[in-house]
Design goal:
Length: about 170
């Protein structure tokens, strides 16, 4: 007879902190995307050093990032634009995305700005529902495109349609 060691369902409380993402964190962020994506994030960290963007990391007590995302202050005049939000797949639906968005909004307000903007792909209704729950309102739609890397390393152009959303802070 096989013995299965089944554990009762349990709730684990995870303490997390929010800080700026650093270049040294990138090897621990491979869950967020391809090598191409991480090179892109690395370039954004150079812009963060110049003050053009904030790039945030939600970290566990081991100081490892489980949610990352940027705020671009150059994309739209007078607003901070949230982009590249990503939560470690194993920890999605636990509230980390909400914490990331709220932390980004605090950074925007700290710069004396009163509007947050973001774009979400039309075929990503879960993310859109989250932003609506947090007070974002759709005001337009726009096409977007970026390079994506296949598992075999081939680069392909991804063309998509996005819903543009904003929130007054
Ligand atoms: C979209 C994304 C950033 C949201 O982050 P998240 O951590 O999953 O979001 P949250 O947990 O804060 O909220 C999402 C869900 O968790 C639920 N939730 C929030 N806090 C919770 C808690 N403490 N306990 C249980 N559930 C909770 C919400 O009700 C919501 O429900 P849903 O699963 O039906 O959507 C994340 O899922 C992700 O990285 N997705 C893939 C990449 C992507 O789509 N990025 C967005 C591009 S615009």
């Amino acid at each position: 007879m096989t013995t299965h060691h089944l554990f009762p369902e349990a709730t684990v409380t995870l303490r997390v902190g929010v800080r700026d993402l650093r270049p040294g964190d990138l090897p621990a962020c491979t869950w967020s995307g391809s090598a191409t994506h991480l090179r892109h994030v690395e370039r954004e960290l150079a812009r963060a050093a110049a003050g053009e963007v904030d790039y945030l990391a939600v970290c566990t007590p081991a100081d490892l990032p489980v949610a990352i995302g940027g705020v671009d202050y150059r994309a739209t005049e007078g607003a901070g634009t949230l982009w590249q939000l990503a939560v470690l797949p194993a920890l999605q639906s636990c509230g980390l995305g909400t914490l990331l968005v709220q932390s980004a909004e605090r950074r925007i307000r700290a710069r004396g700005l009163h509007r947050a903007e973001l774009a979400v792909e039309e075929d990503n209704p879960r993310a859109r529902a989250l932003y609506e729950r947090l007070g974002y309102v759709a005001y337009d739609r726009a096409p977007d495109a970026w390079d994506e890397e296949d598992p075999d390393g081939a680069i392909r152009r991804h063309e998509t349609m996005c819903v543009l959303m904003r929130k007054n802070l």
